[in-house]
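Field guide to reading this record: the first block holds the primary sequence, the second block holds the structure written as discrete tokens, and the final block holds curator observations. Each block starts with its own label. This record concerns Hydrogenase assembly chaperone HypC/HupF, catalogued under organism Metallosphaera yellowstonensis MK1.

BLOCK 1 — SEQUENCE
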Amino acid sequence: MCVAFPGKVVEITGDFGKVDFGNGTVRDNILLSLVNAKVGDYVLVHAGYAIQVVDEEEAVRTVEIWNEMTKDLPQEKKRQDFNEIVGGGE
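BLOCK 2 — STRUCTURE
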């Protein structure tokens, strides 16, 4: 099963970009070359790769669903699960 999380592309350098996942979570070095993304686009990210461009409404709805699913988890568990999905970590 592939799980991906949406974020907004805020900067592009070559094949890689900086993606803002909200709540102060920004990741550098997300590979964007698999999709035709530009600054301002929302992309689904899995394991450090952008795998699809999605519209903003879909991205926001996905974040709402994630927040609902994880509302009762401890903050550390949420962070761990998120890092496993998008890759990298703090």
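BLOCK 3 — OBSERVATIONS
The two ends are 24 Å apart (CA to CA).
The longest strand covers residues 5-13.
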